[in-house]
Write a structure and sequence with these properties.
- This protein is an alpha+beta fold.
- Helix 1 (about 10-15) packs across helix 4, helix 17 (about 395-405) packs antiparallel against helix 21 and helix 20 runs parallel beside helix 22 (about 490-510).
- The two termini are about 55 Å apart.
- The structure holds zinc ion (7 copies).
- One zinc ion binds near residues 1619, 1621, 1622, 1641 and 1647.
């Protein structure tokens, strides 16, 4: 450091990394120098300076300094040239063939079910998209973080290990001459640099001194500068830490939050800087406060500033290395070599092991760097991965123990890397052979579990810690990983090692065999339910491991037999229980059983028997492979002791039976749960199923009578079959009956369940098919439901897909619901009512379904067992229990009891089982007889069943009993089955006889066949008879029913008549209408030819009080429930910023973009206003007392749920009756003579200017220019407007008036988001605006749905719109007329420039339909006189409407023509129609008035085309508006869905010429000056010059954004998503706005927005702009749609994507490929366009209270 100049930080900061620090670099380059020394000196000098500002670091500056002072020189030395250039070169020279991308939490990973070796093999999205697996059966999942992409790992994939991207990497650079060989010099330098760097990193990370640094780093004077550092743990919550910090340091909430976030992310943080003493003090304070809140102190340390700095820099160097690793394989190899190098002669671990061992002590941030470094180096080089794995296994025990006592998540532990190594088949094999990894893992388990051992050396998990046990599962998982791929080739060494591991594993099972014994509780209920979850959970974890061990064993005969011997020994060692007791004798039917007494109901029993079950598993594999023939070589028959093997599983089954018989109910719920899991799909393979197998083993090896006696004894039923003890104890009898049922059922299973490879000759596929068949016999099922009911193998596969199509057909889903599989008919014959995996409910459901089906097919209802497959030789003896003496005794006894009608001693279920067993016996005999000659068949079921016994009980044989059974009335339902069995008896008899007459085989066969036939005929006849009987029965019932109905009508006559009357009325109205249409009233809405209003008398029923009332002006008000909301559904410009508060907004003019309107919708339900008010008040009262419900709806804002349909409403619309009007056509004609448009305009002008003079004294006069000009005509004066007809204004009842005001105020309040104010001048404007906007929305909806304009509205839309328009017309009367006039004048100002006031917008800045609606509705205010309230007569308004409409239409045509000026020619063919010519001449005028800005070159036909298309929405809206305003019936064409004809019909209805330009001709003198002024507006000119853009007509119809067909495209987009606000690598939740397509960063503090002083999440704040508060998002990673409204409400839906089985997958839990379902997406679109989102949210919140907890505001 000769130069001495302390240039470090300052110099570096200015220069970035470019300028090399010459002196230092020179020195480093000196060949002879001591690199290590210099390097450390350099660090000692710079590091403390760079990281001096720990509390408040300037990260960018720090980084610059690090680059300049240390990394740049270091790289220069290492590469020997400019690092940037060198690395660039290196990068281009090729990429690795391994991808190795490390996943962050939440990232999507892909696995291929066809090609992945196991499900842990995954691809990153990039590799997946470029791989062949894209078109395979893939799965998508969300990573928990910490995994890495297996692209390029040939061992992970059966096919397609490389994506196209990485294939390039591998082909361009074959392994041998690795990518871009580094030259020797660089290699040499690396070998010098890496050791020092690595050593420094290791030293600093494991540095334990708080105050001192290693001497070589201590250069400067030690200063008293310390930090108080707080560490992350999983014990303390965020709030705990914040609280403790605030208290201990006295800091602000914000600062404490900042610290806490950083601690959570990085793992540690300095929270205070200062002298040692003060830091120490802070440390104690923090500990004390944290201990107060959570009993455990936070982890705090005081570190010297320099220590802290060097530790920080060590991590920085770690990421530097990490980056370097990605460039070159040589770097990686050198790095790995150094990391693995052990000091010669030292026992100390190598560098990498040191770090691994220290892992649990490191903080979060350090661990992340370390793990990434391992990924980027060792895991990218197969050879070194192996060496690393060896090191890992070497320290496995220590590492796992550290992890188990650590409190960080597993992803943060180095032990989580195990999956990367253990699942690689060659690596696993190597580790087993060389490192004995199976034994290592099992021994680790044996060392961590002893704390759960009880005095018998069995596990007992009472009071266990869930967290700790979860950590133990990680070790169990490792075992599973190691076993995941079965070896194909066994070496001696592998065999020995595996067996060693197996024996070690048996030791764990030994601790489980018989663990957690329970004893039946008698008298008193147990006090505390014991913990059962842990034991069951371990059982679940072990299930597949047990299966895998068995499979491994089975793949080698020698191994299988040796493993069997070991397992047998272990079972025997555990089976000593009860040996002390004296044996007792049990006699029945002349057979004797000698056994040691044991009673499940009195002695301890356990359901955990993994050793016995493993033995059973190995036994069937012996049978399957044939190795069983050599069994005696390994286990001698004396040792074998089958009774002992059977004993424990049998006890377990008896326990299940006793639980069913409610004998254990005092033992509480825990036992019920255990029994449930024992038989549940998650456990049954290694519990229940194996117990059945063990019984089958017993039945095959024991004497059948002995076996049955043992069963009877263990079921404690010995007495039940001896003699009948008369007892009156109903409970006891019931208990006995259930136990007998349970035992019979198990006997059925022992004999009948043969679908296990090894028990019979079936394949795994057969087994799965049978499972599926039985599931589908219950009902058709969804794919996911079937999957859930099938056991998963170690690869989480059920094998479903391979077989499902053989047994079932797929039925597609509709718009909701899901697709289901239905069983194929030919599989129905496989149905076995006593299928052993049915639960009791499934059993009865399936039985019911199948019987029903047979009935429908007119067949008998017998459901006999299907013929089972033959037992394998090893199990063939099992069938003997069917025809043994004890069985016969049991069957006969039960039948006898039924026949003798000792009702309490038998049940129907019991008899069903007896019949089933009989069937099995007969089937067996039949099958045997068909296969071999009679004399060889020793199975004599027929003989035994037909033989008479000698004792009194046996006086009748089974056959006779069956005949009697048919007459037992309680067993009517079993009759068909009994018949079936009798036929079987017959058939077996024939077979016996036939084969005994073997001489005439042929003849007898045909005879037998005939016999068969005749029975078939009989059956047929019988069925026919039954069908006939059933038909008669149905007839009788029908007759009864109709009689009942008549009676009902008699008694409720009144009711019926009423409804009839009502119907009649309706009919009458209908008739009237049809008559009127026949007469052909004029179907014109405007002008002198106006047709009559069709106003029906409206009688409505209040949904609250159920009373009817006619709607009349003078009656009390009736109201419709309604919901007013702001809406952007029609917007043409989403980038426009919406005003959040309407305090200063002027809503009179609507911008043509329709950016945001106010929509009024209704569910169409009518109430009395008074009833509604009562209801609303009651609700308010009610909910004030129940706080939480307020979240559903906001009472303050008038929200309530419709009392009938529960949709969300926030106001009511008063129902105002339409005032029927009819024009006398003669009068009208007369007026037509005088009242031309010009004259009408003059009259209006005079009237308006008259008002101005009158009302605006003092105020500046509104319209001087026009008024003066018009005054010339003396014939016109102020009152002339009245001379064309007036009438008095409608008089509304006070209650209607009140409601008019209330509703108008709501529209104002919601539409503008302001406080209610009944007197505000903008209330009428909002009324007109919502009226116009709602009509536009409905028109838009009808158009997009392709429905006709009239007649296709839903009822609710129809009544809502009717009420809204009538309301809007009536609302005027509740406001001051002067105010209305003022608004009217401003509206007319747009059309009549003479009226123009300052802020009148130009023609291109207004929506013309809004103007029209406003003008029409406000126009009657011109008739207002001081003394009397007048309104125009029918004729007057007909003209007013006509002229206002024509004016607006002329203006709109002009709008269209001007805005389409820049339109390029479309495909339409030119023509020279009259319209085209008119258009041409009109354009000439426009051109002239715009001084040529408007090009007149546009062909006339094109202009006409634009106008015709562009004006349609406006005409349609106008037709709707005038229809609902005036009640004039529309022409037929508008009731039909036809494009052509519509335009003509509209023109006719609205009194327009079909050549719209004729309108200009007609009014030319009047319109010419208007046109001139419209065109002269600067705004118009600027638009024509292309300086500004005007909206085109027709406006585009909004749709939800296009979504990709394939969901993984969306996931791809999401993976590329970068948060716009932060650059950290934390997990993000990208969310897509379905309105506009914006991708947002949701649920994250980085993107929260401060709106009106409130923190809002990205979605919530986006929704305010994009959807005026209501919005629809897609949460991409979760595959869910979110609807939100405002800040407090929202709900979730599955995304509209379906897998190939027609099911959605919210949360991507199943992970099947997903495809867009257009129908469902359309449904969402309609939800939006119909403004039903709010309603939907309210409904879903009502049903799913779950979402209450969610803070929608932060979404
Ligand atoms: Zn990849
Ligand atoms: Zn790849
Ligand atoms: Zn594949
Ligand atoms: Zn009512
Ligand atoms: Zn309703
Ligand atoms: Zn949006
Ligand atoms: Zn963000």
């Amino acid at each position: 450091m000769a130069d001495g100049a302390d240039r470090g930080p300052g110099a570096g900061a200015t220069g970035g990394r470019a300028p090399a620090q010459a002196p230092e670099r020179a020195m480093w380059c000196d060949e002879r120098f001591d690199f290590q020394g210099t390097f450390l000196q350099c660090l000692a000098k710079h590091v403390p300076n760079i990281y001096s500002a720990e509390m408040d670091p300037l990260l960018e500056k720090q980084e610059e300094m690090v680059q300049a002072a240390i990394l740049y020189p270091l790289e220069c030395y290492l590469f020997g040239e400019d690092p940037d250039i060198f690395l660039e070169k290196l990068q281009q020279s090729g990429t690795s063939q391994l991808c190795g991308k490390v996943f962050k939490g939440g990232e999507t990973t892909y696995s291929c079910r066809d090609c992945a070796v196991d499900p842990t093999c995954v691809l990153c999205i990039d590799c997946f998209q470029n791989s062949i697996h894209k078109n395979h059966r893939y799965k998508m999942h969300s990573s928990t973080g910490g995994g890495f992409c297996d692209c390029g790992d040939t061992e992970a994939w059966k096919a397609g290990p490389l994506c196209t991207k990485h294939e390039l990497g591998s082909s361009s650079s074959p392994k041998e001459n690795s990518e871009c060989q580094l030259n020797e010099e660089i290699m040499e330098h690396s070998r010098r640099v890496f050791p020092s760097v690595i050593k420094y990193i290791v030293d600093m990370l494991i540095w334990e001194e708080e105050k001192e640094l290693p001497p070589e780093l201590t250069v400067r004077e030690k200063v008293d500068s310390y930090y108080c550092v707080l560490f992350n743990d999983e014990h303390h919550s965020y709030d705990h830490v914040i609280y403790s910090l605030q208290r201990a340091l006295g800091c602000e909430l914000g600062e404490a939050q900042l610290h806490t976030t950083a601690i959570d992310k990085e793992g540690r943080r300095a929270v205070k800087a200062g002298h040692y003493a003060s830091c120490q003090e802070a440390k104690e304070e923090i500990k004390r406060h944290s201990e107060n809140v959570s009993q455990r102190p936070l982890h705090v340390e005081v570190l010297h500033a320099d220590v802290m700095a060097h530790q920080k820099f060590a991590l920085r160097l770690g990421s530097w290395l990490n980056k370097l690793m990605s460039y070159s394989s040589d770097f990686r190899q050198i790095f790995c070599q150094i990391c693995l190098k052990e000091e010669a002669g030292s026992e100390k671990p190598c560098f990498i092991s040191k770090l691994m061992l220290w892992d649990a002590k490191l903080h979060k941030g350090a661990r992340k760097v370390l793990h990434e470094l391992i990924f980027s180096s060792f895991f990218m080089e197969m050879e070194y991965k192996k060496l690393f794995a060896v090191e890992f296994v070497k320290y496995y025990k220590a590492l796992q123990k550290e992890y188990i006592s650590d409190d960080h998540d597993r992803v943060l532990s180095v032990t989580a890397l195990s999956v990367q190594m253990f699942t690689v088949p060659t690596l696993a094999r190597h580790l087993i052979e060389e490192q004995n990894v199976i034994t290592t893992i099992t021994e680790t388990l044996l060392e961590v579990l002893p704390e759960y051992l009880d005095k018998n050396d069995k596990f007992n998990f009472q009071g266990y810690s869930q967290d700790k046990l979860n950590r133990v599962y990680a070790v169990i998982y490792d075992l599973r990983y190691v076993l995941v791929s079965k070896p194909t080739l066994w070496t001696d060494r592998l065999r020995e090692r595996f067996l060693e591991g197996f024996v070690s594993f048996l030791r764990i099972l030994t601790c489980m065999q018989g663990m957690e014994e329970i004893k039946r509780q008698i008298g008193q209920h147990i006090e505390v339910d014991h913990d059962w979850e842990a034991a069951i959970a371990i059982q679940m974890q072990l299930k597949n491991i047990l299966l895998m061990f068995q499979e491994w064993c089975a793949s080698d005969e020698e191994l299988l037999l040796r493993a069997y011997r070991e397992c047998h020994k272990a079972v025997m060692r555990c089976s000593t229980n009860g040996r002390s007791r004296e044996k007792t004798m049990f006699h029945l039917c002349g057979h004797t059983l000698e056994s040691r007494p044991y009673r499940v109901s009195a002695d301890p029993v356990s359901i955990h028997l993994p050793l016995s079950r493993t033995l059973a598993g190995l036994h069937v594999r012996l049978s399957k492979t044939g190795a069983i023939s050599r069994l005696h070589e390994f286990v001698s028959p004396e040792e074998f002791q089958v009774e002992l093997l059977v004993e424990y599983p049998l006890r377990c089954l008896v326990l299940v039976a006793q639980v069913a018989a409610e004998m254990w109910r005092r033992n509480g719920l825990s036992l019920i749960s255990q029994v449930f899991y024992y038989q549940d799909v998650k456990c049954r393979e290694e519990m229940y199923d194996k117990d059945i197998i063990m019984l089958q083993i017993g039945a095959s090896l024991m004497d059948p009578n002995q076996f049955l006696l043992l069963m009877l004894q263990r079921y404690e039923l010995a007495d039940a079959f001896k003699k009948i003890k008369p007892t009156k104890d109903q409970d006891l009898i019931k208990q006995y009956n259930i136990l007998i049922e349970e035992m019979l059922q198990i006997l059925i299973y022992v004999v009948g369940e043969r679908y296990v490879p090894g028990i019979s000759n079936v394949t795994k596929e057969d087994v799965i098919m049978r499972e599926i068949i039985h599931l589908l016999c219950i009902e058709p099922m969804a794919h996911s439901a079937i999957t859930k009911s099938l056991p998963e193998n170690e690869n989480n596969e059920t094998g479903l897909e391979n077989v499902i199509d053989k047994v079932a057909t797929f039925k597609k889903p509709g718009v909701s619901g899901h697709g289901v599989y239905e069983l194929k008919d030919e599989c129905l014959k496989e149905f076995n009512m006593f299928f052993y995996h049915y639960t009791k409910t499934q059993h009865s459901k399936a039985e019911h379904t199948q019987k029903k089906r047979r009935k429908q097919e007119n067949r008998d209802e017998a459901l006999p067992p299907p013929p089972p497959p033959d037992f394998s030789p090893a199990f063939s003896n099992v069938v003997r229990i069917l025809n043994c003496d004890v069985m016969m005794h049991v069957l006969r006894t039960l039948l006898q009891r039924a026949v003798e009608l000792e009702t309490h001693l038998w049940t129907e279920a019991m008899i069903q089982m007896v019949l089933h067993l009989l069937s099995l016996g007969l089937l067996e005999e039949k099958q045997q007889l068909q296969k071999s000659p009679e004399e060889e068949v020793s199975f004599d079921f027929y003989h035994k069943a037909t033989r008479m016994g000698s004792s009194a009980l046996n006086a009748v044989n089974v056959l006779m009993l069956l005949e009697k059974l048919k007459r037992v009335p309680q067993l009517e339902a079993q009759k068909d089955t009994v018949n079936w069995i009798l036929q079987m008896f017959d058939m077996v008899k024939r077979l016996r006889e036939k084969s005994s007459l073997t001489t005439v085989t042929a003849a007898s066969t045909s005879e037998a066949a005939k016999g068969d036939e005749s029975t078939q005929d009989k059956e047929k006849a019988e069925r026919k008879r039954k069908a006939e009987a059933a038909r008669l029965h149905r007839q009788k019932i029908m007759a009864q029913m109709s009689a009942l109905q008549r009676n009902f009508i008699e008694t409720h006559k009144l009711l019926y008549e009423n409804t009839l009357e009502a119907q009649g009325k309706e009919d009458a109205i209908m008739e009237e209408e049809s008559v009127s249409s026949a007469v052909d009233y004029s179907k014109i809405a405007l002008g002198p030819k106006r047709g009559p209003s069709v106003a029906e008398k409206e009688v409505l029923t209040c949904i609250l009080c159920q009373e009817e009332q006619e709607v009349k002006l003078e009656s009390a008000a009736m109201v419709l429930s309604a919901c007013v909301q702001k809406s952007t559904a029609l917007t043409q410009n989403r980038s426009r910023i919406l005003e959040l508060s309407g305090d200063t907004v002027d809503p009179l003019f609507m911008h043509p973009d329709l950016p945001c309107g106010t929509h009024t919708g209704s569910c169409g339900h009518v109430m009395h206003a008074a009833c509604w008010q009562k209801y609303f008040e009651a609700m308010q009262l009610n909910f004030r007392q129940r706080l939480h419900v307020e979240q559903i709806f906001d009472l303050e804002n008038g929200e309530y749920l419709c009392p009938l349909c529960k949709s969300l409403c926030n106001t009511v619309i008063p129902i105002v009756p339409l005032q029927a009007q009819k024009i006398n056509s003669e009068d009208a004609e007369a007026v037509a003579q005088i009242l031309s448009l010009a004259r009408w305009l003059e009259i209006v002008t005079v009237r308006i200017s008259g008002y101005s003079v009158k009302n605006a004294k003092g105020e500046k006069q509104n319209l001087p220019a026009f008024a003066n000009r018009g005054m010339g005509n003396s014939a016109l004066e102020f009152h002339s407007i009245l001379s064309f007809g007036v009438q008095s204004s409608a008089k509304y009842s006070s209650s209607i008036k009140e409601m008019l005001i209330l509703f108008a105020t709501t529209i104002y309040r919601v539409g503008l988001k302001v406080a209610p104010n009944e007197a505000d001048s903008r209330i009428p404007m909002m009324t007109w605006s919502t009226c116009a906007f709602t009509i536009q929305c409905i028109e838009n909806l009808l158009e997009t749905e392709g429905k006709p304009l009239f007649g296709s509205l839903q009822n609710r839309q129809h009544s809502g719109l009717k009420a809204l328009v009538q309301f809007a017309a009536a609302q005027r009367t509740t406001s001051p007329q002067v105010l209305i006039q003022k608004h009217l004048i401003r509206l007319l100002g747009v059309l009549l420039p003479n009226f123009k006031v300052e802020d009148t917008p130009s023609l291109l800045e207004v929506d013309m339909f809004h103007i029209l609606v406003g003008a029409v509705l406000s126009f009657p205010s011109l008739y207002w006189e001081d003394a009397v309230d007048l309104q125009p007569s029918s004729i007057s308004s007909a003209y007013n409407h006509l002229y206002l409409f024509h004016l607006a239409t002329l203006a709109h045509i002009t709008q269209i023509v001007i805005s389409s000026a820049t339109e390029s020619s479309t495909a339409c063919s030119p023509d020279n129609s009259e319209e085209a010519q008119s258009a041409q001449s009109f354009c000439r005028e426009v051109c002239q008035y715009t001084s040529g800005c408007f090009s007149q070159d546009i062909p006339g036909w094109l202009v006409w085309d634009c106008v015709k298309k562009g004006i349609m929405p406006y005409l349609r809206c106008a037709a709707l508006f005038f229809h609902y305003l005036l009640g004039v019936s529309p022409p037929e064409e508008l009731l039909q869905d036809s494009e052509e004809g519509q335009f003509k019909a509209l023109c006719s209805y609205l009194s327009l010429p079909t050549n719209l330009f004729l309108l200009f001709h007609e009014y030319w003198d009047t319109v010419n000056p208007l046109l001139q002024r419209w065109c002269a507006d600067p705004m118009v000119l600027s638009c024509l010059k292309g300086k500004s853009i005007a909206i085109r007509y027709p406006r585009k119809r909004n749709h939800l954004i296009e979504l990709p067909e394939d969901y993984s495209c969306l996931l791809n987009q999401a993976s590329q998503f970068r948060c716009p606000r932060s650059s950290d690598d934390e997990q993000k939740h990208p969310v897509l706005c379905l309105f506009c397509g914006a991708m947002l960063c949701s649920q994250n503090t980085c993107c929260q927005e401060l709106v009106n002083g409130e923190e809002l999440g990205a979605c919530t704040s986006h929704a305010l702009q994009c959807g005026a508060g209501v919005c629809m998002f897609l949460k991409i990673r979760e595959c869910k749609v979110v609807l939100i409204e405002g800040k407090t409400r929202g709900c979730l839906y599955p995304a509209p994507y379906l897998d190939e089985y027609g099911e959605t997958d919210p949360g991507l839990k199943r992970g099947n490929p997903l495809h867009l379902c257009r129908e469902r997406y359309r449904k969402l679109h309609l939800l939006w366009q119909q403004h039903c989102i709010i309603e939907e949210i309210a409904r879903s919140q009502e049903t799913n209270q779950i979402f209450f907890g969610f803070n929608w505001q932060l979404l």
